[in-house]
Amino acid sequence: MPTTSRHSDWRVSPVFLGIFAVMAVTGWAVWTDYAASAGLAVFLFVTSAWIVSLCLHEYAHAATAHHSGDLSIGTKGYLSLNPLAYTHAMLSIVLPVLFVILGGIGLPGGAVFVERGSIRGRWKHSLISAAGPLTNVLFALVCTAPFWLDALDGVPLIFQYALGFLALLQVSAAILNFLPVPGLDGYGVIEPWLSYRIRRQVEPLAPFGLLLVFALLFIPALNAVFFDAVDAVLRVLGVDEIMSACGFDYYRFWEGENEHCLPYTLGA
């Protein structure tokens, strides 16, 4: 059995580089107001940035598992940042993007299959599960840095909108992922500390955990509690509710501008 991964396992996928290039170009278009359609530019920028964050989320799981002892991670392509390597493309990319388009919510993406038997120590298992959502937390901090650093001078307002909505996606993804529900990363954090009996009883529920969470979010009262929590975190990070809402309105460019954003856009 090899004790180290191959150098090629760590090469960045051209697919990821292409998505990152789209994020950079469309981000520049939003910043400079170069695009003919500001809404389309915001849509492409936020969508590509969201996919980049999905890749980083899964890469964090994979890299942590690799350093914890699972040397099979590299051969599965998880260290290449290729979004197509993280389970099925529909579950890893299409479904999360679809939920962003339809509901403005950060759905946890693909999955990294870890050979847990290769890893010793409960703390390592917990850290592997926590690494993904912690990446969303870090991404949210980066997106909101201009807000909580009070460094918005010179930042175009529409770019602030885009950052606000992107931050909302990261915060919602982090909160959902940290829920201690079977099938989500939050349960993976506490699972190593549970008794064998409890783990066996809960195991059959894992494939349905995410579906259960989203079914509960369709209940208006729970949906309000969830988004109130997201908004509360965003306010701590300096992003007000109007900023992220206007970002979502620009993102859904095919619906046209929402009137509640017009006075805000004009600085009134």
From TrEMBL:
How is this protein situated with respect to the membrane?
Multi-pass membrane protein
For this protein, the record's InterPro entries field holds: Metallopeptidase_M50B, Rip2-like
User: Care to name a GO molecular-function term for this sequence?
Assistant: peptidase activity
- Classify the main location: membrane
Tell me the compartments it is located in.
Cell membrane
Q: Name one GO biological process term.
A: proteolysis
| TM region(s), chain numbering | 12-31, 38-60, 89-114, 126-149, 161-184, 205-227
- Identify which cofactors the protein needs according to its UniProt entry: Zn(2+)
UniProt keyword terms in alphabetical order: Cell membrane, Hydrolase, Membrane, Metal-binding, Metalloprotease, Protease, Transmembrane, Transmembrane helix, Zinc
Report if keyword Coiled coil is assigned: no
Q: Per its UniProt record, what PANTHER family does this chain match?
A: ZINC METALLOPROTEASE MJ0611-RELATED (PTHR35864), ZINC METALLOPROTEASE YWHC-RELATED (PTHR35864:SF1)
What family does the Swiss-Prot or TrEMBL record give for this protein? Answer: Belongs to the peptidase M50B family.
Q: What is this protein called?
A: Site-2 protease family protein
Native organism is Streptomyces amakusaensis
Organism lineage reads as:
Bacteria, Bacillati, Actinomycetota, Actinomycetes, Kitasatosporales
